[in-house]
Amino acid sequence: MISNSKGSFINTGNGPALLPVDIGHKDYLALVDPVTAFWLLVKRNRLVDVLSDTQLRRAYIRKSDEFKKEMEDLRFTRRPSAVYFNPTERCNLNCSYCYIPENMRRNGHSMSKKELFEALERLKSYFRRTLPIGTLPQIIFHGAEPLLNRETVFAGIDKYGKDFRFGIQTNATFLDDQTVEFLTARNVSIGMSLDGPTSDIDGRTRHNWSGESTYKKTVEAMERLKGYAGWNIISTITSENMRQLVSLVEFFHSHDVPSCMLNIVRSTMPSSKEVKPSDTDAVKYYLSAMDRTYELYKQTGKKLIVANFANIFLAIIAPSARRLMCDISPCGGGRFFFALSANGDLFPCSEFVGLSSFKGGNIFQDDIEGVLVSSPFSIVTGRKVEDIEPCSHCAIRHFCGAPCPAEVYTMHGRMDKTGAFCEFYEEQTRYVFRVIADGRQDAFLWDDWDKGTKNTFTIRQFNKPHHIHV
Amino acid sequence: MKTLKKVKKQITKKGKPTRDVISYRKACKVNGTGLSHYILKSN
């Protein structure tokens, strides 16, 4: 007869694995189960009591299978519901870190109306087969610069307005009154890009082919969009703007930007490597900017949501409610979304558009179902932290996900390596835990972030009868 | 948006953390939310 451990103790045999993590808080440290992403924040002087508490251990054991299944469902069973749709390969800007190759942006193909309609028709048909009834798939016109093909894009939005939720990511240089009126009247979400609070800083990385900044036009577009709920700004953190991130969030806050993303640069193209900051520098300035958003909220009552940062809170508090899928492994590329280039080629994510070996097929020639299981897609959808060192034994691997596979492949020619910003994600997670320990998380999250969620575990008061609610 | 008075009250009320152990988790089963570079309005 085989004798198995009864799981009577934490961290041995079949007992739950709860790894201690120093989160840099003076009173608390974290205990994290790397497999289920379950966590506890424990007062430093109560660690021994917690580790030997029978009620707590039993309560977690009762839930651990459910949490494990929740993570497996999130990581391995979902189907795409969004497409990054490039209606043109061309761009009127030449930003330093763009992941689309220069030749494409200068001379690339733009979809005809017929091609765009056919692509949307095929996507509509695919999503009807795969998504639950009532779920509207999302199409994000992306780039290059989608508004260089404005008439075609607008025709698609008008024709398929009932079949998709539309969004557009633009450099804002074509967001004139007429364009804004068209998009807002149709409830299209508008994302624009801006990297600095001044023309000088923004222009270091974002400029046209002659090297001139387009800051003025972006700020004009921001004014036009004031009062519209569905717009946001994406900024790319580079060595050129990281020192001004505090000023940047102040600028966004004062311009009533509803939400933004501060995305660390992805070094998928040689030019982007030139503006890549070090982890240590980038995270220092980034977290100062997060401190500043909290101060601004305290002073004014108005939040500036930094969506990619808010997403880390969700990863910890409500893993299956996360909205963005870069910081989970496998990442969202080819699983929650995929990218369509202007000639119909399909890639797991926009980041791969310049890497031809990751083309999984063509929307005009191949079945989307087949493309999603093609070898180029499978390499991305199969990349998981368990196969990467040191992620395989990292306690916070499900709050980070070791992004980004496109960048990793470009750097190493293989997938089983960490991303370029391991320490950045590590420090970001520690910061989020400190915020949770201090009970300040609401300041960083959307007001209705927990709509549609349910409590699955709560500790109200440690060491009291019935203190754990599961 | 909450009024400034409400925000200040809420933040002041939080005070110093006193609980020995903090842990909670929520679950959500909604399809169609996962993106990368972009945030849609409902997000």
The global form of chain B is: flat
Unreliable spans of chain A are none
In which range does the helix fraction of chain A lie? 25-40%
Hey, which two chains have the biggest interface? A-B, 86 and 37 residues
Q: How are the strands of the largest sheet of chain A arranged?
A: 10-9-8-7-6-5-4-11-12-13
- In DSSP terms (H or I, runs of 4 or more residues), the helix count of chain A works out at 16
- Residue share in β-strands of chain B: 15-25%
Oligomeric state of this protein: heterodimer
Strand content of chain A: 5-15%
What's the β-strand tally of chain A? 15
Distance between the termini of chain B: 16 Å
Q: Main β-sheet of chain A: number of strands, strand sense, barrel status?
A: 10 strands, mixed
- The assigned structural class of chain B equals alpha+beta
Task: List the total number of helices of chain B.
Answer: 1
Order of helices and strands of chain B: HEE
Description:
The complex is a heterodimer of chains A (470) and B (43). Chain A has 16 helices and 15 strands. The longest helix of chain A has 23 residues, at 54-76. In chain A, strands 10-9-8-7-6-5-4-11-12-13 form a ten-stranded mixed sheet. Chain A has a three-stranded antiparallel sheet with strand order 1-2-3, with helices on one face. In chain A, strands 14-15 form a two-stranded antiparallel ribbon. The radius of gyration of chain A is 23 Å and the shape is globular. Chain A has 470 residues and is α/β, with parallel strands linked by helices. Chain B has one helix at 4-14; strands spanning 21-22, 24-28. The longest helix of chain B is centred in the first third of the chain and has 11 residues, at 4-14. Chain B is flat and about 35 Å long. The chains are: A alpha/beta (470), B alpha+beta (43).
